[in-house]
């Protein structure tokens, strides 16, 4: 018997999209030492993994850092059938994707990506869709976990939440921790356990788990590390919302209720062989995709945010949480740190947090003058939990006259900014047919820091934009500058002035 756990080295499941995208080119490659060093080195090269001892520049190549990668990972123990060192570092990033059936990754065997993994990487489906449909196939007892708990933990918790919902109740975070030790996933038994026991705090939970389930795991591991990662997978799957009322309470995400109910009717069975043999488990979890793909696409219209309605939701959030300009600016400043201003927003994944906070800042400064439509999925309160499918900008601000696209990223690495954030951003500005008739267009690209190459890309885009029929104004901002300009409500003038200066400089250089 064991507790439910996912790899704690990767706390934020949204990171897996970048990880899987980086390793995708190695599909079909045999995972031997020679190839594993290339794969792990690529993770460092792309900034997905970092080390103070490995310096990456724009000219760095894989072979330049291989020796350093070997050295930096030399103390890592063997794990998951992979030998000690850099090979087990690879397994650190592949364990959870393997458990959820995104990949097949075994030492000295061919590396495989599932159909759902490929759709996620190519942005055919988003992270919420991918994680939710793989979660519904998942099983506690699997080739990667030596446990006897033979049930789907996600299904178990969702059914508990639905039962509690009938009586207007939620699951406390303390109760979630206890649920992680369930032996058989029996919903009725667990609800009886909740009725007969009060789990007031982490100390009470720790004592109960230690005595009831005979575990000797550390206090912090039981009460923080394991539940933290499990909670994040539930959030990215769109399954839960978290509220704070003195206690952290877990509820069904009401905006996905019908989707969850249909997902729970999905019939998926694993044989004993599939639960114990890695390739059989992978192959099985890569089945019945058409049925699930049909389900997720049928719910996409419900996920699209209405810009005018969302402004009202933002104002409700501002009122409910007592948010003012000072609080939201401080919240933006604390992104990327372990500190938070509003406790309930701590649950939001970091990249979405930035989009959410900037949307709130825009609403505070511009009132209801413009519709605000972030490209994320939000729960019934308006809090984001997942990115929406690709090919749209991050935050769309619009009226009948103008269209303002705000693209935000937390990426600091220059190569990643250039590869992932530049051409896509310009495409988003022009590709949304809904705003073809808005002849005045604005674009703000916002990042923690703007590299010179990135600035030059946008300057070139400004010059090129003058040959089309739109009045286009563009400016790349570092985050602090964008906040400062927004605080004095001078965004449009600032973008227009920057654009005019770029054009003037270009003309002067021609003369």
Concise description?
The chain is of the alpha+beta class. The chain has helices at residues 15-23, 33-45, 62-72, 86-99, 115-121, 127-135, 153-166, 173-179, 187-196, 202-213, 219-236, 257-264, 272-276, 278-285, 289-298, 300-303, 307-320, 325-333, 350-366, 414-431, 452-465, 479-487, 491-510, and strands spanning 103-104, 112-113, 171-172, 240-244, 248-252, 371-374, 376-378, 384-387, 395-398, 402-408, 440-447, 471-478.
Structure description:
- InterPro entries: Restrct_endonuc_II_AlwI.
- It holds the Pfam family RE_AlwI.
- This protein is 51% helix and 11% strand.
- It is an alpha+beta fold and 511 residues long.
- It folds into 2 domains: 282 residues, no CATH class; 207 residues, 3-Layer(aba) Sandwich (Restriction Endonuclease), CATH 3.40.91.50.
- The strands form 4 sheets. The protein has a 5-stranded mixed sheet, with helices on both faces. Strands 3-5-4 form a 3-stranded antiparallel sheet.
- The radius of gyration is 24 Å and the shape is globular.
- The termini are far apart.
- 40% of the residues are buried.
- The model has no long low-confidence stretch (mean pLDDT 91).
């Amino acid at each position: 018997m064991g507790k439910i756990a996912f790899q704690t080295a990767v706390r934020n499941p949204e990171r897996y999209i970048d990880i899987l995208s980086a390793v995708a080119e190695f599909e079909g490659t045999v995972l031997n030492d020679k190839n594993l060093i290339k794969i792990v080195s690529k993770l460092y090269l792309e900034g997905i993994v970092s080390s103070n001892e490995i310096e990456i520049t724009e000219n760095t190549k894989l072979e330049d850092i291989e020796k350093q990668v070997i050295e930096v990972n030399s103390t890592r123990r063997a794990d998951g059938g992979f030998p000690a060192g850099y090979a087990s570092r690879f397994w650190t990033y592949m364990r959870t994707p393997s458990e959820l059936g995104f990949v097949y990754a075994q030492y000295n065997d061919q590396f495989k990506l599932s159909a759902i993994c490929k759709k996620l990487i190519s942005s055919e489906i988003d992270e919420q869709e991918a994680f939710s449909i793989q979660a519904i196939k998942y099983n506690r007892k699997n080739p990667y976990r030596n446990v006897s708990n033979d049930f789907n933990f996600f299904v178990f918790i969702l059914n508990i939440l639905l039962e509690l919902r009938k009586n207007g109740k939620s699951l406390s975070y303390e109760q979630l921790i206890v649920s992680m030790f369930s032996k058989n996933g029996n919903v009725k038994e667990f609800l009886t356990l909740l009725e007969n026991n009060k789990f007031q705090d982490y100390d009470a939970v720790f004592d109960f788990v230690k005595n009831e389930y005979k575990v000797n795991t550390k206090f912090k591991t039981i009460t923080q590390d394991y539940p933290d990662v499990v909670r994040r997978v539930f959030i990215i799957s769109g399954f839960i919302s978290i509220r704070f009322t003195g206690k952290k309470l877990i509820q069904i995400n009401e905006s996905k209720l019908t989707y969850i109910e249909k997902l729970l009717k999905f019939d998926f069975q694993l044989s004993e062989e599939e639960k114990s043999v890695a390739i059989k488990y992978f192959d099985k979890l890569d089945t019945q995709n058409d049925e699930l793909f049909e389900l997720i696409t049928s719910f996409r219209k419900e996920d699209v945010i209405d810009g005018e309605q969302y402004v009202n939701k933002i104002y409700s959030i501002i009122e409910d949480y007592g948010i003012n300009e000072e609080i939201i600016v401080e919240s933006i400043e604390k992104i990327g740190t372990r500190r938070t201003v509003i406790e309930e927003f701590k649950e939001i994944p970091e990249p979405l947090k930035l989009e959410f906070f900037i949307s709130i800042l825009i609403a505070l400064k511009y009132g209801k003058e413009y519709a605000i439509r972030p490209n994320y999925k939000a729960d019934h309160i308006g809090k984001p939990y997942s990115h929406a499918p690709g090919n749209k900008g991050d935050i769309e601000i619009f009226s009948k006259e103008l269209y303002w696209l705000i693209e935000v990223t937390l990426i600091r690495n220059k190569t990643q900014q250039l590869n992932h954030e530049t051409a896509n951003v310009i495409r988003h500005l022009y590709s949304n047919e809904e705003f073809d008739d808005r002849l005045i267009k604005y674009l703000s690209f916002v990042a923690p820091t703007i590299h010179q190459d990135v600035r030059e890309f946008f300057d070139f885009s400004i010059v090129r934009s003058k040959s089309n029929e739109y009045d286009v104004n563009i400016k790349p901002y570092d985050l602090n500058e964008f906040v400062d300009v927004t605080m004095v409500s001078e965004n449009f003038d600032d973008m227009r002035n920057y654009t005019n200066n770029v054009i003037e400089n270009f003309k002067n250089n021609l003369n």
